[in-house]
Design brief:
By secondary structure, the protein is of the alpha+beta class. The protein is built from four helices and seven strands, in the order βαβββαββαβα. β3 (56-62) and β4 form a beta hairpin.
Length: 170
C-alpha cells in the first residue's frame, strides 16, 4: 500500500499538525472495529457521524460512485449489542468522535469521520460527513480532509485523498 499523501492544497489529505496520542489510540480502535464491516475487495468505506444529542450514524458508501449502500442511525441507548461488530464500532466511533469534538474550540452540532479500514479522517471545514454534497465537495477539491491516521491513497477513499487535478470521478 502506498503512503504517498498530498500534504498541501485544497482537496488533498493533510495530517494533523501535531499528533495527539489519545486521539490516535481512539482512531486505531475505530479502525480495528470497522475492518470486519468492510469486506476485502468490496470498495466500501464508512462515514460515522455523531450529533449533539449523542446519536450516531454509520454510513456505508461505495467508492466507485459514492452511492449509499447501508446505514444505521441510533442513540446510545439503541446501539447494537456490544458483542456485535456493529455495536463494537458504534462504541469505538462514539468515543473517538466525542474526544475529537472536545478538541474543537466550538464543537459543531454534527461531527463525523470517514474510515477505509486503514485510516481515519475528518473535515475541519465541513465536519458533518452525512451532509448532502460532502463526498463530492471533497472529491472535487472544495474541502480538504485532515487525517488522524492516513487513509489508503489507493483504496476506497482515493478520490477523497487526491488533489482534484489528479482525481477522476465518473
Amino acid at each position: 500500500m502506498s503512503r504517498n499523501f498530498q500534504m498541501n492544497g485544497r482537496g488533498a489529505m493533510q495530517m494533523l499538525p501535531r499528533s495527539n496520542y489519545k486521539l490516535t489510540e481512539l482512531a486505531e480502535e475505530l479502525v480495528r472495529r470497522a475492518r470486519p464491516l468492510l469486506p476485502a475487495e468490496s470498495s466500501l468505506f464508512l462515514g460515522l457521524q455523531q450529533d449533539v444529542d449523542g446519536s450516531l450514524r454509520i454510513i456505508w458508501w461505495r467508492a466507485d460512485d459514492f452511492r449509499l449502500v447501508a446505514e444505521i442511525d441510533a442513540t446510545p441507548e439503541g446501539f447494537c449489542p456490544e458483542d456485535s461488530d456493529e455495536g463494537a464500532l458504534q462504541d469505538a466511533a462514539a468515543a473517538c468522535i466525542t474526544y475529537l469534538s472536545g478538541r474543537w474550540p466550538n464543537p459543531p452540532r454534527r461531527l463525523g469521520v470517514i474510515t477505509d479500514g486503514i485510516g481515519v479522517a475528518f473535515s475541519p471545514d465541513r465536519p458533518a460527513v452525512a451532509e448532502p454534497g460532502w463526498l463530492l465537495d471533497h472529491a472535487g477539491g472544495q474541502a480538504a480532509l485532515m487525517a488522524i491516521l492516513p487513509l489508503d491513497d489507493e483504496g476506497p477513499c482515493a478520490l477523497l485523498c487526491s488533489p482534484p487535478e489528479t482525481a477522476s470521478f465518473h
